[in-house]
Amino acid sequence: MKMLPHALRATLLVTFTVLATAFTSACKSYQLGNPTELPFKTIYIKPVSNDSFAPQAQALLSTQIRSTFIRDGRTQLVTSAETADAVLLVNLTEYQRAAAATRSDDTATAADFDLTLSAEVSLFNQNKGDYFFQERIIEETSHAYVSNPYQSATSPETQDFLQSEYQAMSLLTRDLARKITDEVLSPWEAK
Question: What are the boundaries of the signal sequence (predicted)?
Fold first, then answer.
């Protein structure tokens, strides 16, 4: 085995040292998790109210908001507003169905729908008696597939739409719960 010349070894050693220093110093300020300190430690999530026509959405959304907070783990959920540092208030304000696609044999009949659910969200500061933020509108859209491409060419039944809407509601409220949780736990300022 032939040894490398001294100048080449020195150059390789210097290059390796520079690269190692660059890689380690580039990551020195990196830290896992969310660096933002929340202004509250405990939160009470009031059951969702529903002023929209979204079927069964308030129970699903209440459960899913709680689940996303539990999974996140930065705050502790409490069972009463009196023991909480913050209270989350969510009211479903609007539910819309819009035709996303029509049937090829009947363009007046919708085959698939876009479902949009809007919520008004407020976060109350129990310790100071004012709001961290108030009446922010958060919305989410999901798709309800009514037509089944593997089904015969008969027209979709009302039951097909109701079942499709029921299945889509779970996804719609799950994604809305994530957006609400992000709004509460992300760095924010008064808007």
Answer: 1-22
Q: What is the DSSP letter of 8?
A: H
Please state, in angstroms and rounded to a whole number, the distance separating the CA atoms of residues 108 and 98: 13
Q: Would the pTM of this model clear 0.85, i.e. be above it?
A: no
For the cut 90, the answer to whether the pLDDT of residue 123 exceeds it is: yes
Residue-wise pLDDT tens digits, 21-40:
767 665 555 555 555 678 89
Q: Which residue intervals of the chain are DSSP H helices? A: 6-26, 57-72, 158-185
Q: Which CATH number fits domain 35-185: 3.40.390.10, 3.30.160.150, 3.40.47.10, 2.40.50.140?
A: 3.30.160.150
With contact defined as beta carbons under 8 Å apart, do 172 and 115 qualify?
yes
Nearest CA to 191 among 133, 138, 137?
A: 133
Characterize the bridge pairing of strands 42-45 and 110-125: unpaired
Residue 32's pLDDT is 53
